[in-house]
Amino acid sequence: MAEQRVNVHIPSRPAVLDSVRLHNIQLPLPAAPDPWHRPGKSQPCAASLKLSYSSAVAAANADDVSLSLDYGKLYRRLEEDIRHIGKQTETPAARHMISVEGSRREEMLGADVGQDVRLIAGVVAHCGLGLLDETAAGVRRMAHVHQHRRRSSTSASVGTQAQARAAVLNNSASASSSPGAPIDDVFGQCEVWLHLPKALLRAENGLHYRSVTVWGYRQGNMASGDLIGSDRCPVVLEEEFRIEGIRCYCILGVNSHERVEKQAVIISLEFKGPGQLAWGSTVVDTYQAMTRAVADRVEETSFQTVEALATFVARIVTMDFANERVTVRVEKPSALAFVERSGVEVTRSQAFFERAT
Predict the structure, then answer these.
(1) Helix (H) / strand (E) containing 135
(2) Exposure of 273 by Cβ count < 10 A (0-12 exposed, 13-18 middle, 19+ buried)?
């Protein structure tokens, strides 16, 4: 069940949008989903992030590192935040993410951060967006000092941070595209990828998760230009779950030799959609039991076509485990001698099977 919704404004993408990336950060999680369902067990995790902002123009023009985002600091801060997962009594950014519709998942407020992959990704996104804020504030302070030195003591002072944010919101394209524009924190987006390779016993490649989080602004104060930090909130635009490498053995194929002995099939499941909605909670609540059920039931099957097997799996995932939609990929490693894998991919929804009955 979602909490009461709030009206949220998401700034448009600036004309100039640059990014800082960290790829395959090895982050041992102090507590994470455990394949044996043991609480509080540490797990390996590979994380990647792409932090997008407007922009690196000033740093490039001046060739000045003080005007850029420090990805070394980003890594160190992220490593520290992950190391202390669960030790804080509250992780506001991770627990108070909202959807683009302005809703929030109540069940995430009391969840163990380490046991919900969405909250782990929220910690990563908050770390990236927080560093963007810090860097932009530092650049503004430097600009103010330099400007003050050029002006006399009677000159007018620069505008407040809130006014600067409001000006960019009203005309973000022209502000971000101007030559030498400094880093701006009105628009911030952090795309996060997580891979937990040992989260599932029956999936060789484990659990993958991806999310895209941006800064949103509560619209109640937009008219007055009041854009102080307390009126900002992380908005999850989209998210994706992938379960990869469910290896099963079953009779599959039309050729006579394929009807004699079971062969390996590799099944992958993908779920994606808008962030922070009910469908994501369903995946989080069911993926352990769902993966086990798919593996067990596929091994009892005897289909002639890969399409029929993929549809069978999709029916289990949607009808038996109440997931709204799934993309199923089924591959046969042994079908073709000089092809590593061959197979099909289908996308099916609950509505598809309900109409078929």
Answers:
(1) helix 117-150
(2) middle
Q: Please say whether the dihedral angle defined by the alpha carbons of residues 255, 260, 261 and 265, taken in this order, is positive or negative.
A: positive
What is the per-residue pLDDT across 128-163, written as a single tens digit (0 to 9) for each?
999 999 999 988 887 766 566 555 444 444 445 445
Residue 18 scores a pLDDT above 90 = yes
Q: Find out whether 139 and 182 touch, Cβ atoms under 8 Å.
A: yes
What DSSP assignment string belongs to 235-299?
EEEEEEEEEEEEEEEEEE-SSGGGGTS-EEEEEEEEEEEETTSHHHHHHHHHHHHHHHHHHHHHT
Two tokens, residue 95: 């627990």
Q: Which domains does the chain have, with CATH numbers?
A: 8-236 (3.30.1130.10), 245-356 (3.30.1130.10)
Helix (H) or strand (E) holding 345: strand 342-349
Angle of CA points 241, 279, 328, to nearest 5°: 45
Give 310's Cβ-side CA count (13 Å radius): 21
> What is the dihedral angle through the alpha carbons of 115, 272, 45, 112, rounded to the nearest 10 degrees?
-10
Q: What is the pLDDT of residue 279?
A: 94
Torsion of CA 231, 232, 234, 238, to 10 degrees: 100
Q: Are 222 and 231 in contact (CB under 8 A)?
A: no
pLDDT tens by residue, 50-85: 999 998 998 899 899 988 999 999 999 999 998 887
Q: What is the DSSP letter of 221?
A: G
Helix 117-150 with 278-298: angle, nearest 10 deg: 140
Which pLDDT value is given to residue 165?
Answer: 41
pLDDT for 172 beyond 50 = no
Cα(169)–Cα(162) distance, rounded to whole angstroms? 11
Question: In sequence order, what are the residues at sequence separation of 6 or more whose Cβ sits closer than 8 angstroms to the Cβ of residue 2?
Answer: 99, 103, 104, 105, 106, 277, 278
Total residues found in the chain within this entry: 357
Q: Would the pTM count as exceeding 0.85?
A: yes
